[in-house]
């Protein structure tokens, strides 16, 4: 049945909605103006400076919500890339998103962004702002399934960094990179449990850490200043020694946005941190559980490498994504809330 659009002005915004481990992904299919720039990173700067009103329209209420997440498919300057992507959230634009890569892998095959799917896996090269990420999509009898991806080089920036929080005093954190920088700290430091405590209490503690690290620690990235910022804080259950049992964490990123999934780039950074500390070996798979929903990803370090002056690893992360619907959003000229709003 053809979708009948109500009265509106301007182009309609067509999207496909998915989730990975409970974390939403709104993939924008059409309605954006041309995104200018000669690289994915320059396109990220362009949308931030010139098209940010459309991020607010799609991420904010009444069309989205405080924790909505989005992806805009763009052209890549890399010949080997099947697609480029810009990630967006309640604060702006991130540099890497593992849950989105897992969803985009399925989407790229199902929506024929990859010309000839292969069984048992189809490779999809996704150019993220942090670099090229290779996804491998299960494919059989014309149907897509689980997805695994190989990260950009992941490395530990610093361990045992002490920062001072106004409410909690001195807190020791580790900082690791998995396409984005995260601070890691055991939730027990705040008297919290990542699977049982109130989400608001976990978010408040993690946000306090993020704000302290941002103000007290100077980050740098081997290749681009655009990537040298702290994306968020991941509170863990402290179970970093290798075990076949799942280890839980919860990620709070951007403007206190809570990830419902185990966080793909966070798992990448956490695996790099565990490998750096000698707690896991190459090709030793761990299961990571979301403290918010109980959903799970697996992660393992598969290769040693270097990234600038940092010793690094390539990490494989695997999970499942599912479709939830398609939508076509419009704007009316006399709607005073058409640009969106957030309840904080």
Description:
Belongs to the proline racemase family. The chain starts with 8 loop residues before the first strand and ends in a 13-residue tail after the last strand. The protein is 18% helix and 40% strand. The protein is α+β, with helices and mostly antiparallel strands and 344 residues long. The protein contains five helices and 17 strands. A hairpin with a 3-residue loop joins strand 9 and strand 10 (181-186). The protein has an eight-stranded mixed β-barrel.
How much of the residues is beta strand, in percent? 35-45%
Number of strands: 17
Instruction: Tell me the span between the first and last alpha carbons.
Output: 38 Å
Spatial shape:
globular
Rounded to an integer in angstroms, the radius of gyration calculated over CA atoms is: 20 Å
Task: Please identify the structural class as seen in this structure.
Answer: alpha+beta
Average pLDDT over all residues: 97
Describe the SSE topology.
Elements: E1 9-20, E2 23-30, H1 40-50, H2 52-59, E3 70-74, E4 83-88, H3 98-110, E5 121-128, E6 131-140, E7 143-150, E8 154-165, E9 169-177, E10 181-186, H4 199-216, E11 230-236, E12 247-253, E13 257-258, H5 264-276, E14 286-290, E15 296-307, E16 310-319, E17 321-331
Parallel strand pairs: 2-3, 4-5, 10-11, 12-14
Antiparallel strand pairs: 1-2, 1-17, 3-4, 5-6, 6-7, 7-16, 8-9, 8-16, 9-10, 11-12, 12-13, 14-15, 15-16
Helix pairs in contact: 3-5
């Amino acid at each position: 049945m053809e979708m009948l659009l109500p009265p509106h002005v301007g182009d309609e915004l067509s999207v496909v909605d998915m989730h990975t481990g409970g974390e939403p992904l709104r993939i924008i299919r059409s309605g954006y103006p041309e995104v200018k720039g000669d690289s994915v990173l320059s396109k990220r700067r362009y949308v931030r400076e010139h098209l940010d009103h459309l991020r607010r329209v799609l991420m904010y209420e009444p069309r989205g919500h405080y924790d909505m997440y989005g992806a805009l498919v763009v052209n890549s300057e890399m010949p080997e890339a099947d697609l480029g992507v810009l990630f967006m959230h309640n604060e702006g634009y991130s540099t890497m998103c593992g849950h989105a890569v897992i969803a985009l892998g399925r989407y790229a095959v199902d929506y024929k962004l990859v010309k000839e799917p292969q069984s048992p896996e189809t490779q999809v090269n996704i150019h993220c702002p942090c670099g090229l990420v290779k996804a491998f999509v299960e494919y059989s009898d014309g149907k897509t399934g689980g997805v695994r991806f190989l990260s950009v080089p992941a490395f530990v920036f610093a361990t045992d960094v002490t920062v001072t929080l106004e409410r909690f005093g001195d807190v020791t954190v580790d900082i690791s990179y998995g396409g984005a920088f995260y601070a890691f700290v055991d939730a027990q430091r705040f008297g919290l449990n990542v699977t049982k405590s109130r989400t608001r209490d976990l978010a408040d503690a993690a946000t306090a850490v993020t704000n302290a690290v941002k103000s007290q620690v100077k980050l740098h990235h081997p290749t681009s200043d655009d990537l040298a910022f702290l994306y968020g804080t991941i509170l863990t259950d402290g179970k970093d020694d290798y075990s076949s049992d799942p280890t839980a964490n919860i990620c709070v990123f951007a403007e206190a946005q809570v990830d419902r999934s185990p966080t793909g780039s966070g798992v990448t950074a956490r695996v790099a941190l565990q490998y750096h500390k000698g707690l896991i070996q190459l090709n030793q798979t761990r299961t990571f559980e979301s403290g918010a929903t109980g959903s799970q990803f697996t992660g393992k370090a598969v290769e040693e490498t270097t990234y600038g002056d940092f010793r690094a690893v390539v990490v494989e992360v695997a999970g499942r994504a599912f479709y939830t619907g398609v939508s076509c959003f419009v704007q009316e000229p006399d709607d005073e809330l058409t640009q969106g709003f957030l309840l904080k």
